[in-house]
Here is the input.
Amino acid sequence: MNAPSLDELKFGPPEAGSGGLIPVVTQDARTGAVLMQAYADRAAVQRTLDTREATYYSRSRGEPWVKGQSSGHTQRVVSVLLDCDGDSLLYRVEQTGPACHTGEYTCFHRPLLEGEPAQSGLDGTLERVYGTI
Amino acid sequence: MNAPSLDELKFGPPEAGSGGLIPVVTQDARTGAVLMQAYADRAAVQRTLDTREATYYSRSRGEPWVKGQSSGHTQRVVSVLLDCDGDSLLYRVEQTGPACHTGEYTCFHRPLLEGEPAQSGLDGTLERVYGTI
Here is the structure.
């Protein structure tokens, strides 16, 4: 796979059009990894809250989308958090299998810029371990 | 603070309008916490890559927005990842101070649905510790 460049970014206009969608960030509740970012309409959010099955709205297909319904790679929703200004949601999930349709664990697997946190010695490791426990 | 309800969600239309924006998910590279979700235009992404200062585009103000420029709560960008289909970005950052303008550590601090991962015994802890190391 070639390294991605800025030219691959799809700068879409998030302000009008199909209407009634909210961005959803999905995080693995066990590992903390960010798995994907998608959209949901009100019915999809309500279904997620009611069933704990992560449900989105597919903009390409124009219909509700229960994650893993065809692939088996379901997401059991552990918690749902609303952001400060109410225009973004976080689903924290238990992921079955890979989250990405490519077979990768997370959809965010193409680095545009790489690096590690400055704090990377033993102290940092222990801090992360304590944070994990 | 009252518990939030579905009525507080702003279901915006992400398909048209201001043009040229991509959603950005921001994660604390040290703790794994999802801090915020915002938007960037191409210039903001380029500036982020060039300077490692997390830069967004403010839809409300209609201008570029260098996180922390007025508050001091800056984000040093450790890595930037593009998702599988090129329509979402992940900034992994070292956060200075709180990420949220409310003073909370993360913007996602209002639970709509609460819970913990099923795997919460010692086995799960060790797995998370190994994953952290």
Observations:
- Confidence is low (pLDDT under 50) at residues 14-18 of chain A.
- The first strand of chain A starts at residue 22 and ends at 28.
